[in-house]
Design a protein that fits this description.
about 260 residues, about 65% helix, three-stranded antiparallel β-sheet, mainly alpha
Length: about 260
């Protein structure tokens, strides 16, 4: 290979304009030469690029959007032909391929979380949760099921976090807290069914719920109720009566 040709492929000029930060996930969206949006991640020794949509590596295994889609299609064919799924299973090789695909989606949703693209995080974590469900139901080897199940609490946590963030962007604090409660319930069910450890995931969601409750704007009724309690505690009964009347009026008008 000619020296000049090597120099034209040197990434140094590109990398010199984008510093690597070991304390952060250095990621950005760009438009590719094909017109499609892509993700670029700055690494210590270079850069990694992923498709923003479809499978992160841009491939179509067996002509499908993903391996998950392919195996779900194979399952559907088996059920249609035999009327049962008893002859369908995932061998070691299939589980290894699905594990590699799950890792691709993991890398992408971590980057998307950093960018605040929560809708895309929900999409990718839902993909990996469906992948875990498939392996749990059809892996031929028990060891494969056990290995995959260890990832479930973390994926549930990130999925929950993304759905909660979407609610917070809309000012829906109650919706975010509902997602957190549901996520914790799912993780606890996972712990009970498979015996995996997930204390860190539950703790992370619990702490986040406390932060949301602390930062949650209080309603007019809540403000009046707080003032009412204070007035009663300080024996300012006339003011307490007025505050009580205001609360009753608000409740009647559903304000």
């Amino acid at each position: 290979m000619k020296k000049g040709k090597i120099m034209r492929r040197d990434l140094s000029p590109f990398l010199s304009n984008w510093d690597f930060d070991p304390t952060d996930i250095c990621v950005r969206k760009i438009q590719g030469l094909d017109g499609r949006e892509k993700l670029q991640v700055r690494l210590d020794l270079g850069v990694m690029q992923m498709e923003l949509n479809d499978r992160p590596d841009g491939t179509c295994p067996h002509g499908h959007f993903s391996l998950l889609e392919y195996y779900l299609d194979q399952l559907e064919i088996e059920q249609a032909q035999s009327g049962t799924d008893q002859n369908f299973y995932l061998d070691r090789e299939a589980c290894l391929e699905l594990s590699q695909e799950g890792l691709l989606f993991y890398h992408r949703y971590v980057c998307l979380m950093r960018l605040g693209d929560f809708e895309a995080v929900v999409r990718d974590t839902a993909h990996n949760l469906a992948l875990l469900d498939l392996v749990r139901a059809y892996a031929k080897n028990e060891q494969d099921r056990t290995i995959f199940e260890h990832y479930r609490p973390y994926v549930i946590m990130i999925h929950t976090r993304a759905r909660g963030e979407i609610c917070l962007q809309k000012g829906d604090y109650s919706g975010a807290l509902d997602h957190i409660e549901n996520g914790i319930d799912k993780i606890q069910t996972c712990m009970a069914n498979s015996g995996v450890e997930a204390d860190e995931e539950i703790e992370a969601l619990s702490v986040w719920a406390e932060e949301i409750e602390r930062d949650r704007p209080i309603t007019l009724q809540q403000k009046l109720a707080q003032k009412l309690q204070k007035a009663i505690a300080e024996e300012r009964y006339e003011q307490a009566a007025r505050l009580r009347d205001k609360l009753i009026s608000l409740e009647k008008n559903n304000l």
